[in-house]
Amino acid sequence: MAQSEASLRSRVSSRSKAKKKNQIGYALLVLALVIAFGVFLGSLKIALAAKWVFGLAFGFVLQRSRFCFTASMRDPVLTGSTSLTRAVIIAIAVATVGFAAIQFSAYMAGKPIPGFISPVGIHTVIGAILFGIGMVIAGGCASGTLMRVGEGFIMLMVTLVFFVTGSALGAYHFGWWQGFSMKSSPSIFLPNVLGWPLALLVQFGLLGALYWMATWWEYRKVE
């Protein structure tokens, strides 16, 4: 009995290894096409080839890290894990440093503050609810959907189609939303309200508090 189970396991293992070996040819073909397309873009414009390489590298990092905003909000509730939640908080903190440096440099030089400061109103609440419900049902946000489409998930391919369709409808009705809520809603830039030092202190203080709460949530003692 033990010998038959061992032989069965060895056959399954050999079959899985054979399947993996059979995929090497496809991987080499895809790699050749990627390189060829990069060379083609480089012949048109070097900037296009650089963007192609950056996109590939960014996609690789997303796939290996399993980075997804949906999972960062869903996992603490479903599994109790907050690793992705903390990763998102760290990413926002890093982005805050970069954007603050760029904007403060423009401020000191007397230039207009770069970046689009979006108005906050009822449209923000409606959009957040719709997107929040949709991304949980679909199982992925924009980055997570693209990453899983690259992995071959059929469901996320359907999600991507409707993601694009919804974005097109949103762009088509954007003028109506401007008249309905956006034009009458305030655009808040914290440094203008609190000053640069206090604004950064509040921003990093909130992020630090959220990080601490996420850590506590994952490692709390559940009785």
Automatic annotation (TrEMBL):
UniProt cross-references to InterPro entries, sorted A to Z: Sulf_transp_TsuA/YedE (IPR007272)
Source species, domain of life: Bacteria
Membrane-traversing stretches: 24-40, 46-63, 84-108, 120-141, 153-174, 194-214
Signal peptide: none
Membrane listed as a keyword: yes
Key words of the record: Membrane, Transmembrane, Transmembrane helix
Keyword Transmembrane helix carried by entry: yes
Name the UniProt record assigns to this protein: Putative inner membrane protein
Naturally occurring in which organism (per UniProt): Moorella mulderi DSM 14980
Lineage, uppermost ranks: Bacteria, Bacillati, Bacillota, Clostridia, Neomoorellales
